[in-house]
């Protein structure tokens, strides 16, 4: 029996309209690699169950589906890890699309780079008007410390779900934190960069659709995740090697700045001011980051 090389997991929560596009983008290329597809309906309250049933009939025997009570993305992804057998996993959001040729490109890359445990690929950003913008992937920094710092602080290392594949070994230090309903991928990506060999693939692996109602822009969930909870998870001893814990304070400031930016863009100016002050208390060096300081100064005149 052929070993499954890549398992694609699509978490679906109230994305009935876009789910067929995501599913069919994967099914169209399953024959190009030793791959399979699992869709997990996370307790959707729209017509996702009916859409999924129809897809199962139209593509009988070509993929599996599971329905569970709503638990959030971390819960779904952890279930996906348990329910699949592929050496590598790709988590594709239900509102996105796998790029043509992605599975074949990943299979070739894995064969050429057997030591890699995370493959970071390029992707297309797709905007509401249909315009596309290619997001290339930068070469990874030379040292592990530079990679961790580049991801958490400098934003020179960018990773997008759907446009990366992770070996199941990388989840040994810790799965997705189920107490986080937002930014749940941050601790996982950080631990992989800190503990495992990684590589980049310039071919686009996904089309990532930008829209206002995306869970990526859910301010309520971002606020619920907070600052200390996220920072503590990223820097938990089981995830992050002790040698990188000196980055914790700077990352706390960065997390506060992220929430400052989110609140500012949602016109929650009082909250934005609070998070900027928290960032400043955590690390006064943020005063040198003009894009944030400019917004903070504007708040003084409101």
Provide the CATH top-level class of the largest domain. Alpha Beta
Number of strands: 9
- Summed up, the helix count is 11
Please state the CA-atom Rg, rounded to the nearest Å.
20 Å
Mean pLDDT: 94
User: Structural class from helices and strands?
Assistant: alpha/beta
CATH H-level superfamily of the largest domain: Spore Coat Polysaccharide Biosynthesis Protein SpsA, Chain A
Largest sheet: 9 strands, mixed
What distance separates the N and C termini? 66 Å
Morphology call: globular
* Helix fraction bin: 25-40%
Total domain count: 2
Low-confidence stretches: none
Q: Architecture of the largest domain, CATH level 2?
A: Alpha-Beta Complex
Strand content: 15-25%
Strand/helix succession: EHEHEHEEHEEHEHEHHHHH
CATH topology of the largest domain: Spore Coat Polysaccharide Biosynthesis Protein SpsA, Chain A
Fold and architecture overview:
It is globular, with a radius of gyration of 20 Å. It has 2 domains: 6-209, Spore Coat Polysaccharide Biosynthesis Protein SpsA, Chain A (Alpha-Beta Complex); 219-299, no CATH class. The protein has helices spanning 19-27, 48-58, 73-83, 102-112, 144-154, 185-195, 219-225, 228-234, 248-265, 269-282, 290-299; strands at 6-12, 35-42, 64-68, 88-91, 97-98, 118-126, 132-135, 164-167, 198-209. The chain is an alpha/beta fold and 302 residues long. Helix 2 links the parallel strand 2 (35-42) and strand 3. The chain has 11 helices and 9 strands. Helices cover 40% and strands 18% of the residues. Strands 1, 2, 3, 4, 5, 6, 7, 8 and 9 form a 9-stranded mixed β-sheet that branches.
């Amino acid at each position: 029996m052929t070993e499954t090389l890549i398992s694609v997991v699509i978490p679906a929560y109230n994305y009935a309209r876009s789910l067929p596009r995501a599913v069919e983008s994967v099914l169209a290329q399953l024959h190009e690699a030793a791959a399979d597809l699992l869709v997990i309906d996370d307790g959707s309250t729209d017509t996702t169950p009916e859409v999924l049933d129809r897809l199962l009939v139209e593509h009988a025997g070509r993929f599996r589906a599971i329905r569970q009570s709503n638990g959030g993305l971390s819960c779904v992804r952890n279930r996906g890890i348990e329910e699949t057998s592929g050496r590598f996993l790709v988590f594709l959001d239900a509102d996105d699309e796998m790029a043509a040729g992605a599975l074949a490109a990943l299979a070739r890359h894995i064969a050429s780079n057997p030591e890699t445990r995370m493959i970071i690929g390029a992707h297309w950003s797709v905007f509401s008007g249909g315009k596309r913008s290619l997001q290339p992937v930068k070469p990874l920094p030379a040292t592990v410390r530079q990679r961790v710092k580049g991801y958490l602080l400098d934003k020179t290392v960018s990773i997008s779900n759907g446009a990366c594949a992770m070996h199941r070994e990388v989840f040994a230090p810790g799965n997705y934190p189920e107490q986080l309903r937002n930014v749940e991928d941050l601790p996982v990506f950080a631990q992989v960069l800190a503990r495992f060999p990684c590589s980049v693939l310039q071919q686009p692996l996904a089309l990532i659709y930008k829209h206002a109602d995306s869970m990526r822009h859910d301010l309520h969930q971002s606020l619920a995740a907070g600052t200390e909870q996220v920072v503590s998870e990223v820097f938990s001893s089981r995830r992050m090697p002790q040698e990188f814990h000196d980055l914790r304070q700077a990352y706390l400031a960065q997390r506060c700045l992220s929430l400052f930016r989110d609140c500012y863009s949602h016109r929650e100016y009082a909250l934005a001011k609070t998070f900027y002050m928290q960032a400043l208390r955590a690390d006064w060096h943020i005063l040198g980051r003009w894009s944030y300081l400019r917004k903070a100064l504007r708040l003084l005149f409101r």
